[in-house]
Task: structure prediction
Amino acid sequence: MADKRDYYEVLGVSKDASSDDLKKAYRKLAKQYHPDMNPGDKTAETKFKEVNEAYEVLNDPAKRQRYDQFGHAGVDPSYGGGGAGYGGGGFGGFDVGDIFESFFGGGFSGFGGSSRTRNPNGPIRGNDINVTLGLSFMEAAKGCKQQIQVQRLEKCDVCGGSGAKSGTTAETCTECGGTGQVKVSQRTPIGVIQTTRTCSKCSGKGKVIKEPCPDCRGMGRVRHTRTLEVSVPAGIDDGQTFVLRGQGDQGVNGGPSGDVNIMVTLRPDTLFERDGFDVWCDIPITFSQAVLGDEITVPTIDGKVKYTVPEGTQSGTVFRLRNKGIQYVNGRGRGDQYVKVNIEVPRNLTGKQKEALRKFEELSTEKNYEKRRSFFDKLKDAMK
Result:
């Protein structure tokens, strides 16, 4: 297995980066390397997966703590051992906490003490899976149906989730007698202290699989690629996440499945820009339309509408169309649309057109140009 890059280096952040810093870096890189933005680019696809993997670990406080202490081995026990590659969520089905507990866990059974290690045979929730979904401006604004692919751990069909080869069963651990715990006595200056630790041979499960299932290699779960249909909520914005409950990795020992967390990235639109739930649109108008006023056609996310530009409109003027913006995600109300008009200066004029403009200028007075008159008044005062 090739060496993995440092997760902080992948995201381009320092080791003391805050959660917001991680999110900003992830959003930027996810957009940059997203497959929708780089069709057919295998290098970009590899970097996109690498960015997702780094963010999944560093954005989880528990995983980040283990990574900071033990590196890649702290969050991926298969690292360096030929395990399965990155699949969008989870790491080969191992619970790293159980592994560390087998080395460092245990509690005092003498002097009234008690052990509080987690029962490895108890229900364990499956890992969440993080995916990124690229959407157009309109798909996010109006909501839509999309299909996503996830690679998730599911119960092995060959062994039924037992992890044992067909025709065999797990045997009682000879080290702990099936209890999953071993007692260790230590002689100290104040007497013999007895501690209870998780059995290292069976990892606390009380049973040992001598002939593992060849399909899942004794794990009881295998990774499958599944296509899921998702309903994108109307009004979702760039960088926001929605969740598919129970569609992540299957749990262990009857534990619930994890979730699929879907983060949205938006592709730029040719007409609209978004500011929260408000929509902005720039529209060019002619010199005559600005001077005389006119009815213009304005595109909105609901279709085209008519708007009357008043006489004497200046370039850069912004008009507001109430309730023509994006629906709030909770469905209660919507934003506005802002229309900015820009006067387009005509080019390639004919001789007659130029002559008409010269005559117009000769007939113009200072009353027709309030801003110009105000500017020259200020200039006179400044030059005194």
Remarks:
- The longest helix spans residues 42-58.
- Residues 286 and 344 are 6 Å apart (CA to CA).
